[in-house]
Amino acid sequence: MKWDYSSRRKTVGRPRVMKEITELVVRMARENPRWGYSRIRGALANLGHRVARSTIANILMEHGIDPAPRRKNQMSWRTFLKAHWDTLAAADFFTVEVWAPRGLVTYYVLLVMDLSTRRIYLAGTTSHPNQAWMMQIGRTLTDAFDGFLLHKRFIILDRDRKFCEAFRAMLESAGTTPLRLPPRSPNLNACAERVVRSIKEECLLKMIFFGEASLHRALREYMDHYHRERNHQGLDNRLIMPEDHVGERSGRVLCRERLGGILRYYHRQAA
Fold this sequence. Notes:
single chain; alpha/beta; Nucleotidyltransferase, domain 5; 2 domains; 6-stranded mixed beta sheet; 35% helix; globular
């Protein structure tokens, strides 16, 4: 029919829940595992949304989120880390191939990371990471005056045998408890693993090293670049140790190069 007024007909049934409300319900439930329907309902009321408990229950069911009694004891690893951020460190080994007079030699580099600040410390490099070397590293890390692990209650370690029992006991006696991860679980040490990947992809894989001294030089240059010149997504894309001129909008733009241009940093000329 020509005049059936179909364009004026209202949709049959109850109107759909606002997208903003749905997103808020899902966010609150995931960020607060102990919150039930009533608690979420109250939080929504604080934001000017009046929502029934049954509506909240339906939204959570649609998104595969359990009710609070089954959800309250679930805590993601990310949430756990953030709750202990200031007291946590992480460590990881990586290897570098170096040309020596006797041929290609594998060097082991031990990296330790402060998770809250993203600062890293290269604890040492060696071609023979035995127990004696690890104990010396442990003494340096736990030094009572300037040890990197001062005020750190926990350190995340994988199951690498180089983190021997004597080394772990030394850390614990100094007040830093080792948290040994399950086998084959690199995602649980994601921050340190990501730094290792950055060092290799941005620097080490682009170079050939002749002797241990050339490796040390490259690592020192990268450390300076990492702390002073490289923006970090984990810090809202900021620098760890910014210089005074960072953020200025006047002055000539200069480029600071390291390792023959492998690493670059753009900054304005100081006034």
